[in-house]
């Protein structure tokens, strides 16, 4: 154990505590994304919103709209204030936004939309800050697994929200949805109290000249003084290199040198959302209601089933993450996901009286394959594929496109199902899944087993060849 230079050994913060609460923001992220799934049927009845698809879409997707801006702002502010301080601020916003959601005035649709946009700022911040903090705290050989733990935290938060929704479903409507939304404050308070004890990331400390403090923090999470000093030297060198890099413009990202890799990373992030996963996560009780005619408020076991599939899939990913090529997993996952969306429409056209629950069965297959392919691998690729000179700006662009896709799917799904059959809407998403597979096969390089420098060199060469070919 590395100790302080004073008379008494310095109290060590366990690495398990640091990694747990460092990734705990994913719980909040997942809870706030998932809780509306169960709350919406009660809110819809309480405020008589059944015929207002656009308001339902806005209330559901407002969090994603706020997240588009929250991630970008948090990334910039965390470079000035620190990862830890920004996670604390995000937790406070979560607490305030959750309480304000629970006390929304009756029929206060626009009030609730505004509050959920505020919550979205915190959700977007968590989505950007948690992976950054974890990657800067984790030793190199654990970074892949710890990125998988972040995904497990997110889907565990979603499952937690589904269980809370189910347990509260027998309360009076107006009380049920308010408690569902308001209880998001509880994990936010736990996060705040836990993060109070977390250290700042060594990389941020070195960047701001606090080298001794960085050495102390590394002493918490590395085994020997030699490991601490070697990593500290690497951080100093990387920080010096980045200090000499100019902030890239948007035009730089799509210049001949970087276009291929930027298109690949941003494209994967966008396809992950436009494939329609969030249509299932947000609206599964309403989907089952439309299929069976039974009240959506009585269908809250289905979100729990989806949540269990997501958690199991994230655990499977931890096992197989580095055993199969990224492109192979995305191709297999995307193909099965696309077929799961398209086959119900095909079967309905052949057998008009087919069991309407068939579509829910196929949606479960979709979620199962999404959970260990496109859900976690998107962020693995985004973390690996961008060259150092543009990494921050390009990763922010990818995150923005991902949230834009999530926002549009959440907003448009109820509007689309108001005028089209569910099978037709999901078939459209199925086609997008297949286009995503084509994109992976033609536009995304394999990154497993390659150093970041090798990936950058291959991408630069590909861009150069494309420029010559197009000249």
Automatic annotation (TrEMBL):
It is found in: Cell membrane. It is a multi-pass membrane protein. One of its GO terms (molecular function) is carbohydrate:proton symporter activity. One of its GO terms (cellular component) is plasma membrane. The chain crosses the membrane at residues 16-43, 55-74, 86-104, 110-134, 146-164, 176-198, 260-284, 304-321, 328-351, 357-382, 394-416, 422-440. SUPFAM superfamilies: MFS general substrate transporter (SSF103473). InterPro entries: MFS_dom (IPR020846), MFS_sugar_transport-like (IPR005828), MFS_Sugar_Transporters (IPR050360), MFS_trans_sf (IPR036259), Sugar/inositol_transpt (IPR003663), Sugar_transporter_CS (IPR005829). Residues 18-448 form the Major facilitator superfamily (MFS) profile domain. Keywords: Membrane, Transmembrane, Transmembrane helix, Transport. PANTHER family: PLASTIDIC GLUCOSE TRANSPORTER 4. Belongs to the major facilitator superfamily. Sugar transporter (TC 2.A.1.1) family. This is Probable metabolite transport protein CsbC. It comes from Mitsuokella jalaludinii. The lineage of its organism: Bacteria, Bacillati, Bacillota, Negativicutes, Selenomonadales.
